[in-house]
C-alpha cells in the first residue's frame, strides 16, 4: 500500500505542470492524509515491542569482518554502476503511429515491460484522421516528436526534451 501511495505522490508531482494550484494543494493534502491514515493503521496492527536488554557481542571481531564486507559491497556497486551505464542510442526507441482513423491512441501500451520505462522515445505521428493521441506518461521520456499529415486530430503531450 505504501508503494502505491508513493507512486500516486510521484504522479501528482509530475502532473503539477498541468494542474491548477488549488488542485495541486488538494491532491497533496489528500495523499498526506492517506499516508497518515496508513501510519495510524500500521501502529494499531503492529504489536508493541517488549523492552529487554540484549547481550553485547564482541565488537572487534565483528568490526573487522564488516569493514571488509562493506569494501566488497562498495566495489561491487561500483562495478554494477559501470555495467549499467549505457549510451543514448541503446536507450532510444522509436514509436510510430501511422495511417489511422477515428481511434484513441495511448503511449501506455508501449510501456508494458520495466526495460521500456528507462528509454527515451522518439515519436513519429503521420496521416491520422479524427484521432486522439495521448502521450502523457510520467514513466516515459519523449526525446523528439515528428508530426505530419494530421487532420481533425488532437495530440496531448508532456514535455519533449
Task: Explain this structure.
- The radius of gyration is 24 Å and the shape is elongated.
- The protein has helices spanning 2-14, 21-45, 59-84, 88-91, and strands at residues 92-101, 104-106, 120-129, 132-134, 141-151, 154-156.
- It has 2 domains: 2-45; 88-156.
- It is built from 4 helices and 6 strands.
- It has 161 residues and is of the alpha/beta class.
- The strands form 2 sheets. Strands 1-3-5 form a 3-stranded parallel β-sheet. A 3-stranded parallel β-sheet has the order 2-4-6, with no helix packed on it.
**Contiguous uncertain segments of 5+ residues:** 61-90
**How many domains make up the coordinates?**
2
SS summary, helix count: 4
Q: Indicate the structural class.
A: alpha/beta
Report the count of strand segments: 6
Can you give the mean pLDDT?
A: 72
Radius of gyration, in Å, reads: 24 Å
- The multimeric state of the shown protein is single chain
Order of helices and strands: HHHHEEEEEE
Principal-axes shape call: elongated
For the biggest sheet, the summary is: 3 strands, parallel
State the end-to-end distance.
33 Å
Percent strand equals 15-25%
Strand order of the largest sheet: 1-3-5
Share in helix: 40-55%
Amino acid at each position: 500500500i505504501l508503494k502505491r501511495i508513493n507512486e500516486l505522490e510521484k504522479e501528482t508531482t509530475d502532473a503539477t505542470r498541468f494542474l491548477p494550484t488549488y488542485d495541486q494543494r488538494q491532491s497533496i493534502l489528500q495523499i498526506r492524509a492517506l499516508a497518515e491514515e496508513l501510519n495510524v493503521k500500521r501502529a494499531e496492527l503492529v504489536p508493541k515491542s517488549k523492552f529487554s536488554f540484549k547481550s553485547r557481542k564482541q565488537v572487534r571481531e565483528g568490526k573487522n569482518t564488516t569493514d571488509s564486507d562493506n569494501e566488497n559491497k562498495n566495489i561491487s556497486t561500483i562495478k554494477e554502476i559501470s555495467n549499467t551505464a549505457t549510451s543514448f542510442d541503446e536507450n532510444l526507441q522509436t514509436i510510430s503511429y501511422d495511417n489511422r482513423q477515428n481511434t484513441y491512441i495511448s503511449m501506455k501500451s508501449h510501456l508494458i515491460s520495466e526495460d521500456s520505462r528507462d528509454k527515451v522515445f522518439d515519436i513519429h505521428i503521420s496521416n491520422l484522421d479524427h484521432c486522439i493521441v495521448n502521450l502523457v506518461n510520467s514513466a516515459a521520456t519523449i526525446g523528439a516528436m515528428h508530426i505530419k499529415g494530421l487532420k481533425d486530430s488532437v495530440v496531448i503531450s508532456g514535455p519533449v526534451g
